[in-house]
Amino acid sequence: MCKLRNIWLSVFLLGYTVTLFAEDGSRLWLRAETNVNAEVKANKKSPTIDIAIEELHTQWKGAPVQLNIVPAKKMPALGNDGYAITGNTLTGISISAPMEQGLLYGAYHLLRLQAAGNLSSAIDITESPSYAVRIINHWDHINGPVTRGYAGHSIWKWNELPDTISPRYKEYARANASIGINGISLVSVPPQMFNADFFKKLKAIADIFRPYHIKVYLGIGFSSPMAVGDLKTADPLNKDVRKWWRNKMNELYSFIPDFGGFVIKANSEGASGPQDFGRTHLDGANMIADAIAPHNGIIMWRAFVYHPTEVDRAKQAYQEFMPFDGQFRSNVIIQVKNGPIDFQPREPFSPLFGAMQKTPVMIEFQITQEYLGFSNHLAYLGTTYEECLKSDTYARGANSTVGKATDGTLFNYKLTAIAGIGNVGEDINWCGHHFAQANWYVFGRMAWNNKLTAEDVAREWLQQTFTNKEFVEPVLNIMLRSREAIVDYMMPLGLHHLFAWDHHYGPEPWCDVPGARHDWLPSYYHKADKIGLGFNRSVSGSNAVEQYFQPLRDEYNNIEQCDERYLLWFHHVSWIYKMKSGRTLWDELCYHYDQGVKEVRDFQKIWDAMEPYVDTERFAHIQSKLRIQAHDAVWWKDACLLYFQTFSQKPIPYDIERPIHNLDDLMKIKLDLLPHN
């Protein structure tokens, strides 16, 4: 019996050991050993500085580190969040900052250099963030589902709060602080829950986030005064409505004195807003801004607005907000998606960047992959972010990049911010796909420094997340090619919104839902006919080009000069139009779709060759995901080419892989998916 018990115990311990060290991705990029005993001292004490000390004490392998709070007048360029790291890894390091959060960010910077193997003996680093507010927006529902979420249900357990605190809340705060995120919009709270009971739950999370210098924000419905205030209107100019908001802000801030503010979607896709009461976005934003201003809160008012009119959807945000430039309160910032439509695999930048010069404008990127294969496709979005941030608006001549137009460089905004739509959920690896973690990481790093390159950040993430050196460069190659591959096999040459109805997974360029808004259907965007393909936004069409500064306006307007990446975005082009490659548009389209498929198959080969250099769990997970992606790429290629061929009436070039599906069969595919998990 004793021998049998020992055998059972050995099996149990073996299983426990395997479980303990199984690689599930839950540690993200924070994988350093924590059994070090570094010497770390500080000239001040606070909960935030204690975290910085603990992180360094348990992970730093170099010389002693001194943390110093210094007078702001000695380091005026650093602002509230900046820091300086000086010294030598062999003799001693000093991290200095005017504020405690700077010491925390500096500590994470030093540990990042160590983990990535990028340390030199002498260190002289000075950093401050590009944007004051660096926020992740959660599209989580209070009851658990996440709109456009692909990693399980929400991590926020509102039914358990405030009594039960998930350990993931602190883990999430730590991960975000390590990449410089300082704001989280947790949930779009239903109006009926916007009360003291909910504020107690919110306070529990705010208390966990506070030492990491992360403020909590909320999404809120504009009509809340009617839902919970017993008012018959939410008219922003009504004195009782204004009083309700002031009183509600006083109540909220009594629970959370450092509450950050609100992200507001109004008069968009059925959401209530000031236009329901004959008012404007200006009236609505300023009313709530006035209520929250005494508490130093801010309003991030989303410019994602469009209506089922004859006006080109791509023009509507500009038309609605430009007339009010300079009239918004100083604590209002307009939150604008990176492109004019809706997070498509590729879009030109929104013309609002650079145009609104008197009102702060912030970029909204999507970290979650709503239009990029959910958590099934490997899509590194650092290249998307870099492409947008470095695009030239020409607002004040050449080199007036989107980054400079939003970070205060061009227009001296006093309030600057950047937002990313989050991709985390209950999944043990947080994001559903191990490589989706890189999109969270690169958003944070580029929010901190909008001049970083996608390549440098991807390499940095790989060096921390997968520690084998032989692994890094081949997989970096996959990451940097991945987004372009998706553009090719989904919507090349400026095509957009060819997705399946509602859930947006898979192709459905033929989609036609009886009674649906025309601007929710793919045909509104691709305009395929016997003549050609694409949306005419030139001066002879919707004239969306007029919203861009010169010389972009003329370049986009001229079919010969238009960047071919955006050709079908701005022009309806003949099937036989001669492209720069010498091919016709039809042939060029076919080759792009085929190239996208080839790219994913090449990713599979590269990944399979990495098996000796990566743990078995993550290797198998990613290998399986790439198989799905390869299947989906062929699905996209066949669906789009066979459908558009019914208009072009031209053969698919014979050196391109033949379709393996029939169009009739593809058109019958209806996936039982929802727009949330």
UniProtKB/TrEMBL annotation:
Residues 431-655 form the Glycosyl hydrolase family 67 C-terminal domain. GO terms for molecular function: alpha-glucuronidase activity; xylan alpha-1,2-glucuronosidase activity. Residues 117-430 form the Glycosyl hydrolase family 67 catalytic domain. GO terms for cellular component: extracellular region. Keywords: Glycosidase, Hydrolase. It holds the Pfam family Glyco_hydro_67M. One of its GO terms (biological process) is xylan catabolic process. The keyword Glycoprotein does not apply. Its EC number is 3.2.1.131. This is Extracellular xylan exo-alpha-(1->2)-glucuronosidase.
